Request: fold
Amino acid sequence: PDEGTLRNWTEYDYNNNGIIDCFEVFVDKNKNNKKDPDEETTSDFALMKEMGVNAIRIYHQPFKPDKKVLREMYQKYKIYVLMGDFLGKYALGSGADWFEGTDYDNPEHQKNMIESVKKMVLEFKDEPYILAWILGNENNYGIACNADKKPESFYKFANRVAGIIKEIDPYHPVILCNGDTLYLDIFAKYCDNIDIFGTNAYRGKYGFGFLWQDVKDLCDKPVLITEYGAPAFGEGYTLEEAEAYQAEYHKSCWQDILRNSAGSGCGNALGGVVFEWVDEWWKAYEPSYHDKKGVFSGPFLDGYMHEEWLGICSQGDGKNSPFLRQLRKVYYTLKELWKEKGGEAK
Reply:
């Protein structure tokens, strides 16, 4: 995105053969970075279904997702979609430029964001794969928007937008994607139209701590972890050690979600969205290089978040991107956790 070369993954055909790339990937089983005769062509959706995935999150993009691709994903693999609009985060949908940033008190910005959301809901509300709507993406942390400086304005506006969605589509729940539980008290005060408290939470390999209880105490809404995960790299550790840590991190987080789902614990956990399916090499701003720099500190193997190593799948050395998938240990860990009852994802 920083170089203006972002493409729509539901339409992208890198080798110009008439097949969308996500339908012709292969698993590099021996990790030799090439497609061997016994490595058959498959799809990302088939690999996801085999792992136990039952829904994916689609973030706000400048491109409209291709309905044909999503319909096939749902019809063939029974994978649903959590469809999102960033609600002005990164200045998307508001009409503001990056340096100005979205102002949640600006009537023109509000109008633009409402139109962006209405367009999304009207376009997709009758599609069978829609599971829920997600508003925002850690807007409370700021970055090209002022929700961090004007939290009351942001949460009031988000609640207003949720009400508009319900007028158009009363059949799908509305989720607000928060950054952890920052400003949870303000959310609880103003967001009665929001059905589910969503949170991107990276709290470490022991789960989510008091998050469930905090939400229950303040607003008593169900909780969806809209992002969680860990990098498969750590400075000073082997890749094998880092992959093992990543798998352990995901296992503990999922077990914590289960412990707090209906009938146990706080009883308000709905599930979680693993971040992410495949490594993004552009995250540290050098798209042709799998960067190992720590972008920020956090509760990870070496104390840093390595944004380019969060994938359940690796792209290997990158020479066969976007087709090559190397399945990390976490893939098989989640497969076991998600398919342990009757072969279906929970």
